[in-house]
Specification:
The chain has three helices and nine strands; from the N terminus they run βββββββααββα.
Length: 173
């Protein structure tokens, strides 16, 4: 894992304990399919990660949705790549650095090809909070979405995120 970060995003003040994890093997609103016991990846925009905090157990919590985050599903353009360790992703709402060391080591040809500057990608990232309020986004999977049949991937992503948030709010009500 790389410790180099171009633009670390600090946490807001710690929050009270909040629940909201999924443990089933069915997709939850705004999540990707998951293996048994694995937490769902929430569809989210990078700017929303600036409004996070820690609950009393040290889990990352999205303040807008009031839910714990351990994995997130992101889409955006790869702006640049720093060797096999870090890529900067721009989803139109913010730019953040992603740790790609593990995924590139596990799948050198597939992940490396997808994680090139200028490509539009979808990725699932594990979230880790470090001392000093640094949020680490470690890429677990990546898929290029810039082929001929993916022309609507970018505009539809904003709608997918909005719909996922609405479904989570309705489920919590």
């Amino acid at each position: 894992m790389s410790t180099h970060r171009r633009n670390p995003q600090p946490f807001n003040m710690p929050l009270a304990a909040m629940a909201g994890t999924t443990q089933s093997t069915q997709p939850s609103a705004g999540s990707m399919w998951q293996r048994s016991g694995e937490k769902a990846a929430m569809k989210i925009l990078l700017a929303e990660l600036r409004r996070t905090g820690l609950d009393q157990e040290g889990h990352v919590v999205c303040t807008k949705l009031r839910q714990r985050l351990s994995r997130v599903w992101l889409q955006g353009f790869v702006l640049c790549r720093d060797g096999d360790d870090v890529v900067d992703l721009d989803d139109g709402s913010a730019v953040m650095s992603l740790d790609v060391g593990d995924i590139v080591a596990a799948s050198p040809e597939g992940a490396s090809a997808a994680l090139q500057a200028g490509r539009y990608v979808s990725c699932v990232c594990a979230l880790e909070a470090h001392q000093g309020g640094i949020l680490d986004l470690r890429v677990e999977s990546v898929c290029a979405l810039d082929g001929p049949g993916d022309a609507l991937a970018e505009p539809f992503w904003w709608l997918e995120v909005a719909e996922a948030h609405k479904l989570r709010e309705l489920a919590a009500a």
